[in-house]
Amino acid sequence: MSRAGRVLAGLALAAACSLGASAAGAAGFTDYGADLESPPKIFELDGYFRTRGSLFYNLDLDRGPTPSGEIFFPVPAADPTAQALSLADMRLRTDLRLYAPGGGLALKLRLDALDNVALGSAPEGIPAAATTQGTTGALLTVRRVYAEALTPLGLVTVGRMGHHFGLGMLANGGDCADCDGGDVADRAALVVPLLGHLWALAYDLTSVGPTTRDKTNLRVVALEPTTFVHNLSFAVLGWRGPEARARRTQAGKVTPEYGAFVSHRFQKNDVPASYLPTAQPVPIDAAQIMARGYAATAVDAWGRIEGPGFRFETEAAFLHAVVDQPSLVPGVLYRDPVTSNAWGVAFEGEVGDEAETYRIGLDAGVASGDAAPGFGAFPRAGAPASQPGDLDGPQANPPFDTTVDNFRFSSDYRIDRILFREIVGTVTDAFYFRPRIRGDVYRGRHSKLELALAAVSSFAFRPESAPGAERPLGLELDPTVRYTNDVGFEAALEQATLFPLAGLDNPALGLRARPAQLWRLRLTYGF
């Protein structure tokens, strides 16, 4: 992994310590076993089928390559001057819950079939003559599987579970209909209701590599315990839940909710040869074990107040990390550690009528930045130091640059459709303002049609990080037409137009970034 990427990945994982509730099948700390006390039935199944088609136009912004030779977005292979690309994909998601007949015990699973598989991506035989589709990758993906038990001490949860906190700015379960990923953790957790709050303690085992097979070839054995990555989390939440909020809002009451967590992650030693790309396989022995001295702490606080006709919600996080020895090459050591201090804030607010036939809102957020060139959203393993004018790249370059201070939002926390979602990949080293409005144009007995419009103004937190070395990044308009009915069907037609500003220009080549557009149709069938 790249020198800066090592710190960034650790920070993101240490901070994503899963607190909060998400959709059905999730295991947030706010899901305090209400369904276990009196389970409705022994077996429950729900989920959705999603298919979506997207058309991308000029997402490379016609601004040429960066100094490292990269372009902002792929272009047609046969004609790099062409503008349009398209893609369609699908997913079947199922959340399965099995309850003990007497209550108090449950097993929960999330299974995804053909997850994000592109339509037409696996023709069997010669493409022009293909008569059927095969499969690429895993046909069925087990996202989550964990058990819950109500005990006199509280709710005990063990397994691989989703994790989400607050707005999902930092830890995001990926439960929205348009989400692509989602955070999971191998965890043992205890949640205790006390004094009107939920108190939670969790231990995550994040990594046990490298491993080898035992004699039966049925199990794996970890080769070096000192390379384990451990994560401890503690949380407290004042939580009511969506059903209680809805009842209180209908009664004209205001509902405050809040929560906070602290999480600490640490690793003593590391084996870079187990995850870095190499030309030939490297035998894992004592010579490959390096002292790492990695420690990261995340603190996150969230609050929401909701009532008839309004909602205000915010989340703020601070991350600190130290890597005592950032070198990835055995025998080559650096004198100084790499440190990171990153912070982020997100806010969502909206007002409207009590029936929610219309809503006017304002969202805003900021993610701290680093002085190194590029945004540092997804630095690649072994990537060279970034250059002024690059879009991405490592944010540390020991021994010359030993800090990584850019905060990264979860990529499933979406605030736009082109700039941060498709070009940068997530919100980092930036701040934004997002006024929005939505309203029903038709509301029938069993269905409704709504129109929505959002305008996103984006700016670089550190101007030197932007490709154009200027703070203004762009203005994006995101209109939506959405139809829903009460049997679980949704059709959403989304469009986006990005008007890039000076921060996305290419001053080295004297080229200005030009507007980009996107169209997406998403169909969701819930059950």
What percent of residues are in strands?
over 45%
Secondary-structure element order, as H and E? HHEEEEEEEEEEHEEEEEHEEEEE
Distance between the termini: 41 Å
Give the averaged pLDDT, no decimals: 89
Helix tally equals 4
Output the radius of gyration: 24 Å
Uncertain spans? 1-27
**Shape label:** globular
Largest sheet features: 18 strands, antiparallel, barrel
Helical proportion, percent range: under 10%
Query: How many domains, as an integer?
Result: 1
List the keywords.
mainly beta; two-stranded antiparallel ribbon; globular; about 525 residues
What can you tell me about this protein's structure?
With 527 residues, this protein is mainly β. The chain has one domain. The chain contains 4 helices and 20 strands. The chain has helices spanning 3-15, 34-37, 242-250, 419-424, and strands at 43-57, 84-99, 105-118, 140-150, 155-162, 184-194, 197-207, 211-213, 220-222, 229-238, 255-270, 290-307, 310-323, 338-352, 358-367, 430-443, 447-460, 472-485, 489-500, 516-526. It has an 18-stranded antiparallel barrel. The longest helix has 13 residues, at 3-15. The radius of gyration is 24 Å and the shape is globular.
Write a short abstract of this structure.
By secondary structure, the protein is mainly beta. Helices cover 6% and strands 46% of the residues.
